[in-house]
Structures are given as structure tokens and as C-alpha cells.
Amino acid sequence: MRFAGGRFIQAIISLWGVITIVFFVLHLAGNPALLMAPPNATVAQIKLIEIHLGLNKPLLTQYGIYLGNLLHGNFGFSYAQNEPAGLVVGSRIPYTAALALAAFVLTVLVGVPVGVVMAANRDRFFDRLLMPAVVAGQSMPAFWSGLLLIYFFSVRLHWFPSSGAAGLASVILPAITLAGLSIAAVARMTRSTVIAEMQKDYVRTAKAKGTANITIMFKHVLRNSAVPIVTVITLQLANLLGGSVITETIFAWPGLGQLTMQSVQALDFPVVETIVILGATVYITANFLADVAFSMLDPRIRLTRGAGND
Q1: What pTM value is reported for the model?
Q2: What is the H or E stretch that residue 94 is in?
Q3: Residues of the chain with pLDDT under 50
Q4: Which domains are assigned to the chain?
């Protein structure tokens, strides 16, 4: 409990830091009143818009008001849509969550087995066959892989729609695009971790006793390799939720990524801040849960980190 409590306090401090940095950076990016005003607006009209949006107050005063509103669950009103920012963002969450969940399932179901197969066949046929694909997946940017998938599977073969969120078929290409980098990262981490674990003495002892290789792999090696693998999988989950901007833009997927692009262009501060807070909360929570999971998988982590030697 003391270990988890310490990590929770660190998580709250990290979230406050993210909120503070994003608030000041956004307010230095420009004046939303200039975008909302008509082309021939006078200075007085622009000032009225600033007063309406609360942008006429000193920046530190605005920051204090914003923090106070956050503590009461008030994320402000969208400048562009004139609706509560929480509702605007909340309406897009199901789309991004569905896309991220599909990509995460692909990451785990493909990345871990591929890494295990490569490790078990180190420097042999399957390892040499899969390694170029893994390297390509980790090197290819999402905008390029997404365009290739659209060209081959939508334009040429007509198997899947190229844009929108009309049904289950619509999520397949965006999910593959979003999961490509994560699958490669998980596969490479799994391969290197399992290889390192297979070279330890207890594995050689088990083989000498006649224990089947599959038993050694699933009963001992994978369990002892769990901490780094769970680490990279946890980080990939957060990256999938926060890194969907390019993918959603390419496939016109109506999620948080597309909303982020639109809100940044419109200088819609409350919406952008709400999206960033949501993403930071997911990322920090994922790391917090990973730390707690590590302490359960390996008590040595709990002891060393609890003693402040991390």
C-alpha cells in the first residue's frame, strides 16, 4: 500500500505538471478571438469577444480560474462549438477507444507470439523471415502505411472502406495502421527478453532434466520475461490512445485525433486542454497500474522502489 500510495502521489504531480505546461503553451500560441471575429471586425469587437471568452484577464488569473474549474469537473466551453468541452470530447471517445482497443488486441495477439517464435528460432528460418517485417513495421510511418493499405485494400481490391466509421469493416484498416509500430516494438522486446532469459542457467538445467521446450517456454521463460514485456505493452496502450491523430486524419475516423487537429487549427483551447488531460490521465494511469503489476510479478521491485532506490 505504501508503494502504491507513493506512485499515486507521483501520478497526481505529473498530471498537474502536464495541465500547467499545456495551459501556458496554448495561451502563447495565439488569440482565438482573432479567428472568431469577422474579417472586418474592429478592435472593440475583438475586445468584446476576448471578454466573453475570459481572455481579457491576466494569464495567471486565467490559470487559477481554470484550475478551480477543473477541481469542480468543469472543463470550460468550446470556443468553436459553444458547448461544454467535456461533452465535445466525450462524444468522440467511443470512436478512439474502439480503434485503440482493436489496435491493442492486434498488438498483443500478434506482437508477443511473433517475438516468441523469433526467439525460439533465433538465427534460423522463421527468425530471418520475420525480422525484416518487424523492422519494416517499426520504420514505416503511419501516414505511409495507411495510404498503402487504402490503395491496395480499398482502391484496388475494394475489400474495406477507405474512410469513415460505418461498421466493423471500417475499423480494420485504421487498426492495422495504428497497431503496426506497436506490434513491431512488442515483437522486438519479446524476442530480446526471451532470448536473454533462455540463456540463463535454470533453462539449461531444465533442458538437462528432459523438460519439454514448450513447458520451459510457457511455464518459466515467459513468466520471468513478463516485466519488460508488460512494460512495453502498457506503454503501447497509452501510445495507441494518444497517437491516433495521423491515423484518424488519414481515414477520416471521427475520434479524438481528428478533433485534436480541428481544435488546434481553431485555437479551441478548452477542447485541446481537455484532450491532453484525458491522454495524460490514460498514460499516467497505465504507468501507475504497470508499476503495481510489476511489484506483484517481482517483489524485488516493490522493495527497491519502496526504499527509494529506483
Answers
A1: 0.73
A2: helix 93-106
A3: 303-310
A4: 93-254 (1.10.3720.10)
